[in-house]
UniProtKB/TrEMBL annotation:
Coiled coil: none annotated. Residues 45-64 are annotated as: Disordered. It comes from the Eukaryota. The lineage of its organism: Eukaryota, Metazoa, Ecdysozoa, Arthropoda, Hexapoda. GO terms for cellular component: neuron projection membrane. PROSITE patterns: IG_LIKE (PS50835). Residues 79-166, 182-274 form the Ig-like domain. This is Ig-like domain-containing protein.
Length: 322
């Protein structure tokens, strides 16, 4: 009986010592591993840590979903570029161009534009820092866009331009501006020789245009061609794309169809060709042309051996008389 009483008193005494001990001199009991718990206590401690981490994750998820605190969450990247709206562009000579820079979460930072060719500061915020007044900053607060406007761009303006954010250190995004001048050409210039009765096919090609011309006008001897005229047989086909091609077709060519034809795209300089409609029975004119400009079939040009010899004699006599 006294042994049991002693054991109970000893137990109470030790329990009292545990409660009165200072936490500074004695580690918390949860960090001690009594022999009688073994691995069970370790597993419980790991479970507590996992539960604690899970609680923190849940709290972060709730915190991140709070819109009022969104700018203070780890999801905040600070000022950064929206690359989907900041791209290279191709502009036409003389037509106002815009280099766009979209900056998200700009805060109290500023946006600047720098020209790489001469490391020249062009704009800071909405202010222009160059004597070239063709450059101007345009800001659209609804879309976070900071655009560089270039009026009357020239080919010399082609190059790299950088949009910078005044962070520490500054961050920038470079874009390339290509200023091009569309080129208009008509196949076969400057002169094209066609036989009467044949089909005239004038092909006008527009290259280096960032967008297809809205219209292409054809003129004949300074008069706009009327495709519904009583003459008939005149039509035009235009294929638009990166390279725009316009075909002017004139069926059953006549001598009155001779003259100057001009192809005039709405966004490029015109191109001119001189068309000569020849009669079938004009061998001297045919002999004066290089073979590449003969429009007659070989069967018409050389109907038989006798006529061929006759043409050669005339050609030799013409050279002898020079």
């Amino acid at each position: 009986m006294s042994l049991n009483t002693f054991s109970e008193e000893q137990f109470l005494l030790e329990l009292s010592d545990d409660r009165s001990s200072s936490p500074v001199t004695r580690p918390p009991i949860r960090n001690r591993t009594p022999p009688y718990l073994g691995n069970l206590h370790l597993g419980f401690h790991q479970h507590q840590q996992h539960h604690h981490q899970h609680s923190e994750t849940s709290e972060n998820e709730i915190y991140d979903s709070d819109e009022s605190n969104l700018l203070r969450t780890p999801l905040d990247r600070g000022p950064h570029f929206d690359l989907s709206a900041s791209k290279n562009i191709t502009a036409l000579v003389g037509k106002t161009a815009y280099l766009n820079c979209r900056v998200k979460n700009i805060g109290n930072k500023t946006v600047s534009w720098v020209r790489h060719r001469d490391i020249h500061l062009l704009t800071v915020g909405r202010f222009t820092y160059t004597s070239d007044q063709r450059f101007q900053a345009v800001h659209n607060p609804k879309t976070d866009d900071w655009s560089l406007q270039i009026r009357y761009p020239q080919k010399r303006d082609t190059g790299v331009y950088e949009c910078q954010i005044s962070t520490t250190p500054p961050v920038g995004h470079s874009m390339f501006l290509a200023v091009v001048e569309p080129i208009t050409t008509i196949v076969g210039v400057p002169d094209l020789y066609i036989n009467t009765g044949s089909t005239v096919n004038l092909t006008c090609i527009v290259r280096n245009s960032p967008e297809p011309p809205s219209t292409i006008f054809w003129t004949h001897n300074n008069q706009e061609i009327n495709y519904d005229s009583p003459r008939g047989g005149v039509s035009v086909i235009t294929e638009k794309g990166e390279m725009t091609t316009s075909y002017l077709l004139i069926q059953r060519a006549r001598t009155t169809d001779s003259g100057k034809y001009v192809c005039s795209p709405s966004n490029a300089d015109p191109s001119t060709i001189n068309v000569h409609i020849l009669n079938v029975g004009s061998p001297l004119k045919r002999l004066a042309l290089p073979p590449s400009q003969w429009s007659l079939p070989l069967s018409l040009m050389v109907p038989n051996i006798a006529s061929t010899a006759f043409f050669l004699k005339i050609h030799a006599w013409a050279n002898y008389c020079r």
